[in-house]
Design goal:
This protein is about 25% helix and about 25% strand. Strands 1-11-12-10-13-14-15 form a 7-stranded mixed sheet, with helices on both faces. Strands 4-2-9-6-7 form a 5-stranded mixed sheet, with no helix packed on it. A hairpin with a 4-residue loop joins strand 11 and strand 12.
Length: about 375
């Protein structure tokens, strides 16, 4: 196993994860009736996925949040076909979903260089339009960022997610002692000695009912969608969100987290996952861990502890269950090794699948030419 050499931490200041913009395609140019000249078409407005871009940078650079493409040139004696208007590009972060004001998804930008037209330019004047040009399409759009990270930390408030990320790095995330202890999304980057980087997203804590958008439910869960793997974090001694809410054991916390993910989007629970059992420095932690281990091995026998509507359809299968103490550093190095192993395993499987796909395509191509 390649040892972790250093860990960097990137912190988002005034984090922006949703931005509303106005986009309008350019107007077409005038046609020239006496010579049958055609005006140039207006330019289009495109959203383009760009490395190292953030929604906050767009907001700061374009405070009016208006993006209008260039108008097409008029037809003239010297140029019967008018020049096309210039396109306008909105440079946006990778991992954007572009939606209309009424919630319709226009498309996703998942890789650097991905492009999406959001407002088409108007056609230039021609014989078919009595040489009158048309205006470009105009609409309000929303750029909705769903963070892309290798792992997303999933846990109820006070499970110690921010403290865990701090223990794995020199990070100092903002933490407060109330229901949502992570104030802003944070991304920690683990840098390995062979230059491998693994990103870990620490997001605002879930609460029961998040799937129906209680608390910051959907704001949290949409980010989980775009992480490759999940890193569940539970307090070994359990937790109680508030004095009026029931106490939940570590086992119950795991199942409730699973249920919240499942209710929001069922395919989330099929992601590869690791379980971090935090706060092993607390009294009776070893006994509690032994109890949790037994319960996870036979979940059906212990799910009567939960109300029927809180039992997940499918239990999570964890690649690793790692006991740690973010406060003392116990188990942190082992956790880093498990994270690396899990990410490498997925990368290897992806490479193998890609290779097999290419071989299959070559075979089909060869058969066609026999």
């Amino acid at each position: 196993m390649v040892q972790l050499s250093r860990i960097c931490f990137r912190k988002y200041g005034n984090f922006v994860d949703n931005l509303r913009l106005y986009a309008r395609g350019g107007s077409g140019g005038m046609g020239l009736p006496r010579l049958g000249g055609q005006g140039g078409n207006g330019g289009d407005v495109w959203v383009v996925a760009t490395k190292n871009m953030t929604l906050k940078r767009i907001k700061d650079k374009y405070p009016h949040k208006r993006f209008v493409a260039g108008a097409g040139a008029n037809s003239s004696v010297h140029a019967l076909r008018g020049a096309r208007g210039e396109d306008k590009e909105i440079l946006a972060p990778v991992g954007i979903t572009v939606i209309t004001d009424d919630g319709k998804v226009i498309g996703d930008l998942n890789a650097e260089g991905d492009r999406l037209m959001v407002a088409k330019g108007g056609p230039g004047g021609s014989f078919h339009s009595v040489f009158e040009p048309s205006r470009g399409k105009a609409k309000h759009i929303r750029l909705d960022l769903k963070l892309i990270a290798d792992l997303g930390l999933v846990g109820f408030p006070n499970a110690g997610k921010s403290s865990l990320l701090t223990a794995m790095s020199n990070a100092t995330p903002q933490i407060a002692n109330y229901a949502f202890t992570t104030l802003k999304p944070e991304i920690g980057k683990l840098m390995y000695s062979d230059h491998k980087q693994i990103s870990v997203a620490d997001l605002p804590g879930l609460i029961e009912g998040a799937h129906i958008n209680k608390g910051m439910g959907h704001k949290f869960l949409k980010h989980v969608e775009r992480t490759k793997q999940l890193l569940f974090v539970v307090d070994v001694c359990g937790f109680q969100l508030a004095s009026k809410t029931p106490f939940r054991s570590a086992f119950e916390a795991v199942q409730l987290l699973t249920k919240e993910l499942e209710l929001y989007k069922e395919e989330l629970v099929s992601k590869p996952a690791l379980l971090v059992v935090n706060k092993m420095d607390l009294p009776d932690a070893e006994d509690k861990l032994a109890e949790l281990t037994e319960q996870l091995q036979n979940p059906d026998e212990f799910c009567d502890l939960l109300p029927d509507d809180m039992i997940p359809k499918n239990y999570m299968t964890f690649r690793h269950v790692v006991p740690v103490s973010a406060a003392t550093g116990f188990g942190i190095e082992h956790l880093k090794s498990c994270i690396r192993e899990s990410v490498d395993k997925d990368a290897e499987m992806t490479t193998k699948a890609t290779h097999q796909g290419r071989l299959q395509a070559l075979r089909l191509h060869s058969l066609k030419h026999l």
